Amino acid sequence: MLNEKGFTLIETIFSALLGTIVFLGMFQIFSISMVAFSRQNGLNSTTNDMARFLYVFSCDIHGADSVSVTGHSRVVIFKNGSFINYTYCGNTIARNGKPAIKNLSYAYFSQTPAYSGSGRVVYVLIVKNSEMMETGAYAE
Prior knowledge:
Structural class: alpha+beta
Strand order of the largest sheet: 1-2-3-4-5
Number of strands: 8
Number of domains: 1
Strand content: 35-45%
Order of helices and strands: HEEEEEEEE
Radius of gyration: 29 Å
C-alpha cells in the first residue's frame, strides 16, 4: 500500500469544474451589470439633452415680444428685435435651422391663453427613447 499524499484525478477534475462554474457565474453577473450601466448612462444622457433643450426653449419664451405656434410643429418667437424659429421635422427640433435636439420619438408644441392677464402659455412636449418631458413657459 502506497502512502502518497495528494489529490486524485477525480478530485482535481471536480475542483476545476466547480471553479469554472463559479467563474462563469461571476462573469455573467459582470456582463449583466455592464449592460445595465450602459443603459442607465444612455438614459441619463437623454434626460440631460432634453432638460438642456427645455431650459433654452423656456429662456427664449420668457420676455419674448411675441410668440406664435403654427401647426403644433413650429414656434416663432420675436425677442429683442430678432426672430427665433423652432421647427419639428422628422425626429429633430431645430432652433434657427440648427439641430437643437435629435432622435426624438415625438414632439408637440401648443399654446393656450394664460389664466390671468393678456399673455399666453406655450407648451412643448418631447419624447425620446421612451422618456417624456414637457414644459410650459409664459409669454406676454
